[in-house]
């Protein structure tokens, strides 16, 4: 199989990137940010005892790299026409998105505590009309890639340089619309589109294999015409390199398959499907915050 | 009403080309039915603004939603059964909830699709589309009205469902007829009865009006081209001014035009309404005209019901 192993394939990295190998301090900074993002996720689901911590924690590192390094966005101008776009197709992981947006400065981090409250704009699933920085409303699984395609096609029509990112779940890709959309991404040669599959291997009723195997994910997207990159979705350097490779792929879309751990970062949540859509109790909350290095 | 006949899908195809010339943000999507929906006329003149998404209606609606977030005005077309039926969830969650500027223009509505039969005869779309918040639902009856609607809906910043027919029906209006979204068109001043009609049944109502006149029965016809928001004032006015009310539609009687009128009457001026339409059944194969007779939505059915009233 000719799938890219990122660290072994430096030739695919851009020239500039090869010259400026990231300083270890940048990686450390991003790792620190990822902890802040995880804290925000825990605060959000704990505050109203509702939400989806497992899948939010599995994409926390990827979304941290996106929101604090990769995305060309402006928190003071959320609707900026030339901005990069992100569609969180697995919309139930809104805590990760909200935490990134809050930590980036789109709104006050304290607001995360209002998540899912009747008076809050932070809906259970992302609402583009209620939260600044949310590029697309999502929640009904399987619909985001089509929307991301539309954004990418518009970018090409208008000769814009923005990129479009779309985050899918490994269970979500059981939805047929994803594969309809994958054909569209390929037909229109959307090299300004980067799909990320959060491969945490767990969905509500069990493991991916048990419920309805979407494997082999990389082979599937490859056969649909995507450039494939396999990475460890918790290794900041690999995530950075993957986005960099994707930017230099021409004439076809890219799909990054990120091997992740559901509940990553909170010991008792890791690889536990029970934490897909359950909030921690007070004791569990305290443990989680402690494991993330305590408050602040 | 003229002798000349034309299907609203034809008018739609022509109007799209006109619109494309005037507005560069207009883009058109289809799902492998461009020849039948008539979007192929637009595709021919503007190949770079036309996207054939293939036999994948859900993806087409989602792609249209994405385009609309980047200031494009997408017109997404396929048969009504695939637009409103197959892609209902995409229309609900990716278009209506975020209130995106997507125009869903569905051809081949109702039993007048004809020979293709029940699987292709969409008689639930008005019902499905009008229940969605933020959605405007328009069902056009002739050439001039379709051409007006195609341009007019670009002035609405939000989702629109435009219902178009396969069957060629008589030209009703002059090119200079004035239309307004949300305002029914009253044809005739009769006070014996009101016939509310929409889409292909407007011509049937007008035929009935003419025949009834010969029998000394004077009815008015109301063309309800906007199903949502519906013309509440017009409905209440007609209920007050005329003795009998009847609605006729190429759609299931559950949830369609008759239901929408009933809701207004129930809330504001309770009175009887006779609803003609497909009576909670699926369609079947046959010629469009035969099917209209079978499902009792022709001018003769309207006449029969009104004479029985009198």
Question: Would you give an account of this structure?
Answer:
By secondary structure, chain A is an alpha/beta fold. Chain A has a single domain (4-291), classed as Rossmann fold (3-Layer(aba) Sandwich). Chain A has eleven helices and eight strands. Chain A has a six-stranded parallel β-sheet with strand order 1-7-8-4-3-2, sandwiched between helices. A two-stranded antiparallel ribbon of chain A has the order 5-6. In chain A, α7 (176-187) links the parallel β3 (164-169) and β4. Chain A is globular and about 50 Å long. Mean pLDDT of chain A is 93; it is low at 1-11 and 15-21. By secondary structure, chain B is of the alpha/beta class. Chain B has helices spanning 8-22, 34-37, 40-45, 57-68, 80-86, 88-96, 125-130, 143-152, 201-214, 232-241, 257-268, 288-294, 299-309; strands at residues 5-6, 26-30, 50-52, 73-79, 103-107, 136-139, 160-163, 169-170, 185-187, 193-197, 219-223, 226-228, 244-252, 274-278. Chain B has a seven-stranded mixed β-sheet, with helices on both faces.
CATH superfamily descriptor of the largest domain in chain B? Thiamin diphosphate (ThDP)-binding fold, Pyr/PP domains
Mean pLDDT value of chain B: 97
Task: Please give the order of strands in the largest beta sheet of chain A.
Answer: 1-7-8-4-3-2
Structural class by secondary-structure content of chain B: alpha/beta
Please give the number of β-strands of chain B. Answer: 14
The overall number of domains of chain A is: 1
Structural class of chain A: alpha/beta
């Amino acid at each position: 199989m000719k799938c890219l192993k990122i660290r072994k394939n430096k030739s695919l990295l851009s020239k500039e990137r090869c010259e400026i190998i990231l300083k270890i301090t940048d990686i450390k900074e991003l790792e620190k940010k990822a902890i802040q993002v995880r804290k925000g996720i825990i605060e959000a689901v704990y505050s109203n005892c509702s939400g989806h911590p497992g899948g939010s924690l599995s994409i926390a590192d990827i979304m941290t790299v996106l929101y604090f390094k990769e995305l060309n966005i402006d928190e003071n101008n959320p609707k900026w026409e030339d901005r990069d776009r992100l569609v969180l197709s697995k919309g139930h992981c809104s805590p990760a998105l909200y935490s990134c947006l809050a930590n980036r400065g789109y709104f006050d981090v304290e607001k995360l505590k209002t998540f899912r409250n009747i008076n809050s704009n932070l809906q259970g699933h992302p609402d583009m009309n209620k939260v600044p920085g949310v590029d697309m409303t999502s929640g009904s699984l399987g619909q985001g890639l089509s929307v991301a395609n539309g954004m990418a096609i518009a970018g090409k029509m208008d000769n814009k340089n923005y990129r479009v990112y779309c985050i899918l779940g490994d269970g979500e890709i059981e939805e047929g619309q994803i594969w309809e959309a994958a054909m569209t991404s390929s037909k229109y040669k959307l090299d300004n589109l980067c799909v990320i599959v959060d491969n945490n291997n767990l969905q509500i009723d069990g493991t991916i294999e048990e419920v309805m195997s979407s494997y082999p994910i990389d082979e599937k997207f490859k056969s649909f015409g995507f450039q494939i990159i396999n990475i460890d979705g918790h290794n900041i350097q690999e995530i950075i390199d993957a986005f960099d490779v994707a930017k230099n792929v021409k004439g076809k879309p890219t799909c990054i398959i990120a091997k992740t751990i559901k509940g990553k970062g909170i010991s008792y949540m890791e690889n536990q499907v029970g934490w897909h859509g359950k909030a921690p109790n007070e004791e569990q909350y305290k443990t989680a915050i402690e494991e993330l290095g305590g408050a602040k | 009403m003229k002798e000349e006949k034309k299907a609203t899908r034809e008018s739609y195809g022509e109007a799209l080309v006109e619109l494309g010339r005037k507005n560069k943000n207009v883009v058109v999507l289809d799902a492998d039915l461009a020849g039948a929906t008539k979007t192929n006329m637009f595709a021919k003149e503007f190949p770079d603004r036309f996207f054939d998404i293939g036999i994948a209606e859900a993806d087409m609606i989602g792609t249209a939603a994405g385009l609309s977030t980047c200031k494009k005005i997408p017109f997404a077309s396929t048969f009504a059964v695939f637009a409103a039926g197959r892609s209902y969830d995409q229309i609900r969650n990716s278009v209506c909830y975020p209130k995106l500027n997507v125009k869903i223009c569905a051809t081949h509505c109702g039993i007048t699709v004809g020979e293709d039969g029940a699987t292709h005869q969409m008689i639930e779309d008005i019902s499905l589309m009008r229940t969605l918040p933020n959605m405007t639902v328009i069902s056009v009856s002739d050439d001039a009205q379709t051409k007006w609607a195609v341009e007019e809906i670009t002035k609405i910043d939000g989702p629109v469902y435009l219902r178009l027919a396969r069957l060629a029906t008589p030209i009703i209006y002059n090119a200079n007829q004035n239309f307004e979204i949300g305002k029914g068109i009253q044809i005739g001043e009769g006070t014996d009865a009101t016939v509310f009609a929409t889409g292909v049944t407007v011509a049937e109502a007008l035929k009935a009006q003419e025949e009834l006149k010969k029998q000394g029965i004077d009815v008015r016809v109301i063309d309800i081209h906007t199903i949502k928001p519906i013309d509440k004032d017009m409905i209440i006015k007609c209920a007050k001014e005329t003795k009998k009310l009847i609605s006729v539609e190429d759609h299931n009687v559950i949830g369609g035009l008759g239901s929408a009128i009933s809701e207004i009457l129930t809330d504001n001026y309770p009175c009887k309404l006779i609803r003609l339409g497909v009576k909670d059944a699926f369609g079947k194969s046959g010629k469009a005209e035969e099917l209209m007779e079978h499902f009792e939505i022709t001018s003769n059915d309207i006449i029969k019901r009104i004479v029985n009233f009198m």
